[in-house]
């Protein structure tokens, strides 16, 4: 056996071992997860333990079946790129894959096409020009737990997001190889995770044909220079830069092009779930419902301070370098402003080098605290389309798309 085949076999064996460990995770959290609620996140629904799943460092547990894990806040201060082992995990359906043989994998492309396709991973890698993008993947419900009044759904903090370098092929190239028929309207994506009960709709997402044929969406097999982690979609994941993670279908196996609007039982996650009030603010009066809704789509402009924790203590008359991140839907970050006095005055931070318009953008600012006592740090970002973070949070029944200016209470001694 040659060296190249040796490497492939070793890689496959290692992968199958990891998949076997993941299978255990689906039935026994305690056998895999070291928990310590004293170090975990305390939130509206009680303490959150830190747990360890295969291929992951300790992450914040939201729930176990299906796996839902948040990235701890300190990770975002360590690097502008979120490491694979720290990237958040979100599944919708409990019947998720726990083992997988990459040698038998095929992606099917069917429906309103001239030539249906059935592509192995090797064929995807060899038959198309590779594409790469650094892009933020953020859950639509990120920060939902801060909604007031509270809303139904996982009470998430700010850790359901991450920034990675994705490598794969353009979705447009694959669709063009299949030959899109002129009457095509939408493209539906389906992965390997399935509902437990027939009454539960499958998790499928759709893009309008114009969006699917634009340069941005891609099919990725690599994340930060490595194979996709199993819990983040191995072997293939739909990447939709600038859009919320609900569109980023994991374990992608099927692409179907249709010549009519997407309806029916399995269209739930487009036509009933993940929808916002259809108005300018995408909001309603707290506690009410919208008369008309539309599917959630692009990321709003958003920013965080990553170098300071809530209730942290700083020394008076000392200079501190505040650091953080900002991002939006790809329009491009124009400015990041920081306040150390609860919003009374603002200073413009220095933006770090850009890794691309869909990426986290780092920022930094040196500040000096001149008065003792409590203080509030605040950060706001604006983008090149004129969008700026609001001072007051808006509200919608799903707790989606939160992007209010973040505030961090500290003490100066």
Explained architecture:
The strands form seven sheets. The chain has a five-stranded mixed sheet with strand order 8-7-16-11-12. By secondary structure, the protein is mainly β. A hairpin with a 7-residue loop joins strand 3 and strand 4.
The termini sit apart by: 67 Å
Name the shape in a single word: globular
Summarize the main sheet: 5 strands, mixed
* Number of separate strands: 27
Tell me the Rg in angstroms: 22 Å
Count of DSSP H/I helices:
6
Brief account:
This protein has 6 helices and 27 strands. It is mainly β and 413 residues long.
Q: Which helices and strands appear, and what pairs or packs with what?
A:
Elements (H helix, E strand, L loop, with lengths): L2 H23 L15 E3 L2 E3 L1 E2 L7 E5 L4 E3 L4 H4 L10 E2 L16 E5 L5 E3 L1 H7 L2 E9 L22 E10 H8 L7 E6 L12 E5 H4 L5 E6 L2 E2 L9 E3 L12 E7 L9 H4 L3 E3 L15 E3 L6 E4 L6 E3 L4 E9 L5 E7 L7 E2 L1 E2 L9 E8 L4 E11 L22 E7 L1
Parallel strand pairs: 7-16, 20-27
Antiparallel strand pairs: 1-2, 3-4, 4-5, 5-6, 7-8, 9-10, 10-13, 11-12, 11-16, 13-14, 13-15, 17-18, 19-21, 21-25, 22-23, 22-26, 24-25, 26-27
């Amino acid at each position: 056996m040659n060296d190249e085949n040796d490497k492939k076999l070793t890689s496959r064996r290692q992968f199958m071992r990891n998949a076997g460990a993941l299978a255990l995770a689906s039935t026994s959290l305690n056998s895999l997860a070291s928990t310590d609620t004293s170090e975990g996140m305390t939130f509206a629904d009680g303490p959150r333990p830190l747990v360890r799943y295969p291929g992951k460092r300790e992450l914040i547990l939201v729930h176990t079946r299906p796996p839902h894990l948040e990235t701890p806040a300190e990770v975002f201060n360590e690097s502008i790129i979120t490491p694979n082992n720290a990237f958040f995990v979100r599944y919708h359906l409990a019947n998720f894959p726990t083992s997988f043989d990459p040698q038998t994998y095929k992606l099917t492309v069917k429906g309103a096409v001239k030539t249906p396709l059935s592509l192995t991973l090797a064929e995807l890698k060899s038959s198309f020009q590779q594409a790469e993008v650094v892009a933020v993947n953020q859950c639509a419900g990120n920060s939902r737990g801060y909604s007031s009044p509270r809303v139904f759904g996982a009470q998430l903090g700010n850790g359901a997001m991450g920034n990675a370098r994705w490598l794969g092929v353009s979705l447009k190239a694959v669709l063009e190889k299949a030959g899109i028929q002129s009457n095509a309207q939408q493209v539906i994506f389906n992965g390997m995770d399935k509902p437990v009960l027939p009454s539960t709709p499958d998790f499928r997402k759709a893009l309008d044909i114009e969006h699917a044929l634009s340069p941005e969406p891609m099919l990725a097999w690599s994340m930060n220079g490595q194979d996709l982690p199993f819990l983040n979609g191995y072997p293939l994941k739909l990447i939709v830069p600038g859009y919320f993670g609900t569109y980023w279908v994991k374990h992608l196996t099927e692409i179907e092009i249709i010549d009519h609007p997407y309806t029916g039982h399995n269209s739930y996650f487009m036509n009933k779930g993940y929808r916002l009030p259809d108005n300018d603010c995408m909001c309603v009066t707290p506690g009410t419902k919208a008369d008309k809704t539309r599917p959630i789509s692009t990321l709003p402009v958003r920013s965080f301070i990553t170098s300071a924790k809530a209730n942290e203590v700083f020394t008076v008359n000392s200079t501190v370098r505040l650091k953080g991140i900002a991002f939006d839907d790809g329009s491009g970050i124009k400015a990041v402003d920081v306040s150390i006095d609860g919003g009374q005055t603002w200073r413009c931070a220095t933006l770090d080098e850009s890794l691309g318009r869909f990426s986290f953008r780092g920022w930094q600012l040196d500040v000096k605290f001149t008065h003792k006592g409590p203080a509030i740090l605040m950060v706001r970002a604006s983008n090149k389309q004129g969008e700026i973070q609001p001072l007051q949070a808006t509200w919608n029944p799903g707790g989606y798309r939160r992007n209010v200016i973040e505030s961090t209470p500290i003490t100066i001694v």
